[in-house]
Write a structure and sequence with these properties.
seven-stranded mixed sheet
Length: about 120
Amino acid sequence: QVQLVESGGGLVQAGGSLRLSCTASGSISRINTLGWYRQAPGKQRELVAAITRGAITNYADSVKGRFTISSDNAKNSVYLQMNSLKPEDTAVYYCNIYSLYRAYWGQGTQVTVSS
């Protein structure tokens, strides 16, 4: 069973930066997109950023210009560089990989931004 292993969350002050990493524990074939979602308390899970195998990216309006998604196709890994963090970015961040056959989800990593 392939698992997505996330790292890089934590506590940071407003204006600071964090880098999230996610790597699949095994091989995943026919990957379409890799991405990051987040869920804040009392809110629905939302897309933060996604990247296709062809490196086409998509960002939520709230993070454009502050977050950058990247991937390493050979390692089945995806990264999220988060700059200029705001308290409203506080949430559990989930790594996601969509293949032709199914969706894979990480266990989530907490990001807390203090004001």
